[in-house]
UniProtKB/TrEMBL annotation:
Principal localisation: membrane
Pfam family, one: FtsX
Native species: Novilysobacter luteus
ABC3 transporter permease C-terminal domain sequence ranges: 309-429
Topology of the protein relative to the lipid bilayer: Multi-pass membrane protein
Keyword Membrane appears in the UniProt entry: yes
InterPro entries the record matches: ABC3_permease_C, MacB_PCD, Macrolide_Exporter_MacB
Keywords noted in UniProt: Cell membrane, Membrane, Transmembrane, Transmembrane helix
Domain MacB-like periplasmic core, chain residue ranges per copy: 72-275
Subcellular location: Cell membrane
Source organism superkingdom: Bacteria
Transmembrane region(s): 7-27, 33-55, 67-90, 305-330, 350-377, 402-423
Name of this chain's protein: ABC transporter permease
Length: 437
């Protein structure tokens, strides 16, 4: 009966610790600041706090004598923070790349109920109907700024190992340049309508081989010439652009997949209302910012979940490393702790002192892991599959928010890893500790 009660009590403590760790990691900055201020006031203004500070200084002074064991905590927690921040930086970089692709001044039109271009079909006779609707901006020639487009997944050799990987060939209309002014040529020229010519994004140029300006490549059993390279600072840099009509004829595509249009002032509501009033246009419309943000949600959530799970698994290992190290430290300092207890240090100052020492080591590990993640991964360029199963080139983004989250994880691990050794130090009988030493 006593054994069961003890087991249930230990289980309750573990559950409470896990819940507390979750709350701590989710705590906003003002909450962490409030906790730090309250702890600082307690340490400075109360007798127990001042005793805890004195005991902490004694423990920190002895760290050089057990630096090897203490480094286990630092390295373990640095690994947790580094991996966690790197994983989350990948998701944040992917989301930021897609979020930069759209804005609130352009709209994308898809077939009603379609979630992406890949499952959308817009017939050719619907294009002139859409172009005559209100809400679409006019170009310098007085014509509507809209581009009927289609997307084709093609296979190209990877620049890294030569293996075939998916790429996105986008067929665009003549107005695509005015609709997307962020697309700027950095080499070569634009493709000529009616010819099998390509311009390639800078990300695609890095990701795939054979895309230098002047090269010819085979796509859809046809020979295409690369005539230009562009930068856009968004996911379009992962694409190859060509004349929509030539892409359609090459792949026998009788319809388009989407229409991208630049909106006039307040044009979204007018365009949406006009489309809804025409029964021939069973189409959906949203801003490109909203569309590309939705495209990134799934993968971003997956990366965040995987990063958190992997970080949690590694955190468990780091907690056990901290437990072993601090238990050994408490055992090695048994006489020192017993002496402090004998001269008037109560249990609470001893507990706080051991935990502060552990959290200091954890903070050092967190800073080390965060610094390594920032130095190694911030701006590191990779590619992954987008919603159309083509490669999207993007860069890791190690933001201050991610570094802050990593430090909170480090302190949380230190809190859990130092608690039980701290309680053991406080409960250590003075006479037993002095005899054992």
């Amino acid at each position: 009966m006593k054994r069961s009660a003890k087991w249930l009590g230990n289980l309750g403590v573990l559950v409470a610790l896990a819940a507390g760790l979750v709350v701590w990691i989710m705590l906003p900055r003002w909450g962490v600041l409030a906790v730090a201020v309250l702890l600082g006031l307690w340490l400075v203004l109360t007798r127990s706090g001042r005793l805890a500070l004195a005991a902490t200084r004694v423990g920190i002074a002895s760290l050089p004598q057990r630096w090897g064991a203490s480094s286990v905590i630092i390295v373990g927690i640095a690994g947790v923070v580094g991996v966690l921040v790197a994983m989350l930086a990948m998701g944040e970089g992917f989301a930021e790349t897609l979020n930069r692709t759209g804005d609130d001044d352009t709209a994308i039109i898809l077939r009603g109920g379609s979630q992406a271009e890949t499952n959308s079909v817009i017939s050719r006779d619907q294009v002139p109907l859409v172009s005559s609707l209100p809400g679409i901006a006019q170009g310098s020639d007085g014509r509507p700024l809209l581009s009927p487009e289609l997307s084709q997944v093609i296979s190209l050799p990877s620049a890294s190992d030569g293996s075939d990987v998916n790429a996105q060939l986008r067929g665009v209309g003549p107005k695509a340049w005015e609709i997307r002014p962020q697309v700027q040529l950095v080499e070569g020229r634009r493709f000529e309508p009616g010819l099998r010519e390509l311009i390639v994004g800078d990300g695609a140029h890095q990701q795939f081989s054979g895309l230098d300006v002047g090269n010819t490549i085979t796509i859809g059993n046809q020979t295409w010439t690369v005539v230009g390279r562009f930068e856009s600072g968004d996911s379009h840099e992962s694409e190859l652009w060509a004349d929509a009509e030539i892409v359609a004829s090459t792949y026998n595509r009788p319809a388009y997949q989407s229409i991208t249009a630049r909106l006039a002032g307040g044009g979204m509501q007018a365009l949406k209302a006009a489309m809804a009033a025409d029964p021939r246009l069973k189409l959906d419309i949203e801003t490109t910012r909203s569309y590309y943000s939705k495209q990134s949600e799934g993968l971003t959530k997956l990366i965040k979940v995987l990063g958190t799970v992997i970080g949690a698994i590694m955190a468990i290992g780091a907690v056990f490393g901290a437990l072993n190290t601090m238990y050994a430290a408490v055992a090695g300092r048994a006489r020192e702790i017993a002496t402090m207890r004998a001269i008037g240090f109560r249990g609470l100052p001893v507990v706080v002192a051991v935990m502060l020492e552990t959290m200091l080591l954890a903070l050092l590990g967190g800073i080390l892991g965060a610094a390594l993640a920032w130095l190694v991964f911030n701006g590191y360029t990779v590619s992954t599959l987008g919603s159309n199963f083509s490669q999207v080139v993007f860069s890791f983004r190690v933001s201050p928010e991610l570094l802050w989250s990593g430090l909170k994880w480090a302190l949380g691990i230190g809190l859990v890893g130092g608690l039980f050794p701290a309680l053991r130090a406080a409960r250590l009988p003075v006479t037993t500790a002095l005899r054992a030493a």
